[in-house]
Amino acid sequence: MSTPAYRRILLKLSGEALMGDDPYGINEKVVERIVGEIAEVSGLGVQIGIVIGGGNIFRGIQGAASGMDRATADYIGMLATVMNAMALSDAFRRHEVESRVLSALRIEQVVEPYIRARAIRHLEEGRIVIFAAGTGNPFFTTDTAAALRGAEIGAQIVLKATKVDGVYTADPQKDPTAKRYHRISFDEAIGRNLAVMDATAFALCRDIKLPINVFSIFKPGALRRVVMGEDEGTLVHS
Ligand code: UDP
User: Fold this and answer.
1) For residue 1, what pLDDT band results from cuts at 50, 70 and 90?
2) Is residue 218 included in any domain, yes or no?
3) Which of 61, 97, 160, 223 has a CA positioned 20 to 30 A from the CA of residue 229?
4) What predicted TM-score, i.e. pTM, was given to this entire model?
5) Domain that holds residue 201
């Protein structure tokens, strides 16, 4: 039997991934399916850290657009990620997979605070670690939190789960001739102006040579294939 290509990964799930076709919030059926796929990969012995977004509930930038103070709006966005993290963790419990939520904002009645050494310990003991509240700072995104936590825990790769199964030459929904990049270097992605992750996250991954694999979380088995090192989505490398 083949072995996974990675021992430790950082999976970035957007809040929208939990929404399914709903206009807002958490769709339990969708969460069940995603958690099932992650549990399968955990069963292969891969250590998994997850950074969860909050866009299915609240985005700071939208709050600011309607007149809210940006930093306040961003803190609301971070709290939204805590709700998502708790929902994910509970779904893992139903799958009998151990997980812990570590939050960059202290809300100790409900989740553990983020302490790097503790995160690594949980990973080594086979627990899935869900990083909540992004970086803990306004004006950042959970993409940046994914790059940061990925770097901190020594993940070998950041897996960016999106709706599209990789990075394309053009928008595949608008242009039928658009082609998927199987592999692309950081420099080439910049040269071609491809939006892989937000600019801060991308710059950090590039600086520390942390590869990113963009794939679709809605494609059954795709996560497993990425983890097995198969050609799935787009691999961005140094
Ligand atoms: N956010 C923040 N700092 C962080 C991470 C997130 O202020 O380090 C806020 C920001 O307002 C953002 C919201 O939390 O809009 C939800 O995160 P994000 O938009 O990254 O979620 P996703 O698009 O992945 O669902």
Assistant:
1) low
2) yes
3) 97
4) 0.97
5) 8-237
